Amino acid sequence: MTNSKGPTDRGLIGKGPKGHAGGRYDVVVVGGGAAGLSAALVLGRARRRTLVVDAGEPRNAPSSHMQGYLSRDGMAPAGFLAVGREEIARYGVELVRGRVTDVARGEDFAVSLEDGREVRARRLVVATGLRDELPGVPGVAERFGRDVLHCPFCHGWEVRDEPFGVLASGAASVHQALMVSQWSKDVTFFLHTVAEEELTDQDRRRLSAAGVKLVPGEVTELVIENDRLTGVRLADGSFHARSVLYVAPRPVPRTALLKRLGAQMDETPFGTYPVVDATGLTSVPGVWAAGNAIGFSEQVIHAASGGYRAATAIVGDLLMSELDAVAG
């Protein structure tokens, strides 16, 4: 049986953030990436009044393609988000380009937007993600997502068997150098600002077993020819030919709103993230988090799944609260 009214029968598309009386929503989703759009899709299909506030700062914006997402392998991140926005619009979900500047708890959540408007929500999904703070070597930021990479699962296949470099920036860099040897047997580990004595005996044994070459000395620049990485230059003037350089960015979670709401946070080696349950529910009643807002290793497919889980939990939570209010 089909519904002759179709998914947009509530007539909410294009009304903006005041499309509902008093700017009130069942759910406001902060963040319009994979996690936020996935949550919004489920909420819209469940006939919940939903607003997405999107600052337009996806983590994977520098990449020309995303990989490992079944049925979407190789799709451009911008194209993926465009399709997602079209899909949520079919179900009356509203999307506002902008930034949430403040959130206050009360009977509902008061959500302040950067343009001065305020909307209210019964529940919140925080899907604000994170930003990658890159090493300060000249050329790294400009080439990031092209031939300067950080995730072999995202890009390893596309650059397989090329000569890899790995720029050390901390203890996690040893693990990165070992992992990328799955995709190339020509790997050079540039110790950069890491002293050789910081490597453990186990590190050395594993790097040797993987065939990873160690090069001490600080990397001072990337060498680019014809818009392609050709190698790196060290402080001593030596040049090392490489066509791919892996780096380990420092993840900086965008969790200011969660902290402002008093969410319990957990310090990790990769940043401070909210403590959540299996659905993404934080320690603050009515507030869920999903995507890179809960962890640095959430890939696009994980983020979409997390948004879905959060939304289904919210639908049930809202329904039970409404039934309890009627039942007294």
UniProtKB/TrEMBL annotation:
Annotated keywords: Flavoprotein, Oxidoreductase
Organism: Streptomyces thermospinosisporus
Domain FAD/NAD(P)-binding stretches: 25-305
Catalytic activity: [thioredoxin]-dithiol + NADP(+) = [thioredoxin]-disulfide + NADPH + H(+)
Keyword Flavoprotein: yes
Cited Pfam families: Pyr_redox_2
Protein name: NAD(P)/FAD-dependent oxidoreductase
UniProt keyword annotation of Oxidoreductase present: yes
InterPro entries per UniProt: FAD/NAD-bd_sf, FAD/NAD-binding_dom, Ferredoxin-NADP_redctase_2
Residue intervals passing through the bilayer: none
